[in-house]
């Protein structure tokens, strides 16, 4: 009798069960001392409790979640294992794991051993699929990121060269699809914002002119410095394109892009377009706070997952998903929290697999969060995650489209606006035109005996007529500059790099804005410059008569060889 009474008291103490309510413990392992992370997790639990209350508004049993936090040293596998064991002993129904791979792996393994659902809110690059049996991770798989990039930069942007600038070695696995599917020239350079040598990376690309299209995988907090550096090396004009893959790039102050002189800046995001002015509110129905300690520091020298707004949204969506799973489990079973589990002995939580199944069975509008609709594939990973593609406009980022594995790349951009924007940018500009004197296309009529003028009034011919029509329609001005060497363009290799002379060289080295001439289009030239639709064809064609085939007669099978065949195979015999 006494033992039974003690057991009841212990159960009441641990689980806080009464006739009307039950409190379930949720374990959280934190690395380091980032104050915003703890605030985000507590806010996420608070929001999950509100969602539970709404889902179980008319249910007799009220359920609340209680966070138990364990703070460990950054990247410590031993401390993570110890914290996970402590949480198992405290009868948690779920464990929210640490961020680093070194610490997360051991905690993930312990959670699985005792059938306790394990939650992550970051890109998990581990290839051991057996560890995902009890793991819930709303972050997209790294292959999705690579596929989205390939479809965007090669499918719609038509990039034929690429420079990848990255900060962390672990992130390179995201570009596995890019490395395997990008068939053109690809150069990879590592960026270290704390080392002054990172300037030589930009200097190298500027000096060699080997690439003008870049994928930039550096922390958001270092992006402003990157923008200032490329501006210093005059790499922000219309010939350059940059795609930033840090999820928080859209939250950069648009003033950071004041260096833009016509370059194309794009970014990937897990969130819909929110903009720099987006502010979190104190409303607990929203996941975050305006507290300075909560938001990422703009002056930080480095960025980690814990200083990312996207990471905080993933935390909120993950804990909200936990509340949905618990509510569904309570509808079909009596909630019995773990009891008596310890890392010193074998055992498991019998309801763990059922809770995990309830969580991963959500689909459609069941669990729509800040990062979009949540659904899981047969292997237990989140599927069809929307990756938003943003493009920098005059007043900040605009949506270009989105990508998911089901629909692939869907472009939502209104290109009619883009055309008008380009026309506005051209209006009043003076373009430098490279050409070659050739009758009747480009002929000089200015005064002889002097250096030839670049004024279009001193030139005439078909190309001038064409330029005048274009300039009138688009309201730009131009100057005429015949190439000094008189060549259309021949390629030679200099120090391993293909260098062009003539008109092609003027365009390759940005000494001219466009060229108008009797220029032949070929594959080699198309690799370095863009051609318009040809305005003239030579008109030379080769015409030949198509051979006529005669109907075979009935006895054609008796003549398998032509008369010449057996004749040519016979040789005269010499006497003797």
TrEMBL record:
User: TM segments?
Assistant: none
Ranges where the Ionotropic glutamate receptor C-terminal domain occurs: 430-576
Matching Pfam families:
ANF_receptor, Lig_chan-Glu_bd
A Gene Ontology molecular function term for this protein is: ligand-gated monoatomic ion channel activity
One GO CC annotation: postsynaptic membrane
| Cellular compartments annotated | Membrane; Postsynaptic cell membrane
Keyword Transmembrane helix listed? The answer is yes
Signal sequence bounds: 1-19
Membrane disposition: Multi-pass membrane protein
The protein's matches in Gene3D superfamilies, at most eight in alphabetical order, are given as: 3.40.50.2300, Periplasmic binding protein-like II (3.40.190.10)
Tell me the superkingdom of the source: Eukaryota
Can you give the residue ranges of the Ionotropic glutamate receptor L-glutamate and glycine-binding domain? 440-509
Q: Chief subcellular site? A: membrane
Question: Keywords of this protein's UniProt record, alphabetized?
Answer: Glycoprotein, Ion channel, Ion transport, Ligand-gated ion channel, Membrane, Postsynaptic cell membrane, Receptor, Signal, Synapse, Transmembrane, Transmembrane helix, Transport
From the Swiss-Prot or TrEMBL record, give the protein name: Lig_chan-Glu_bd domain-containing protein
Which organism is the protein's source? Answer: Mesocestoides corti
Q: Top-down, what is the taxonomic lineage of the species of origin? A: Eukaryota, Metazoa, Spiralia, Lophotrochozoa, Platyhelminthes
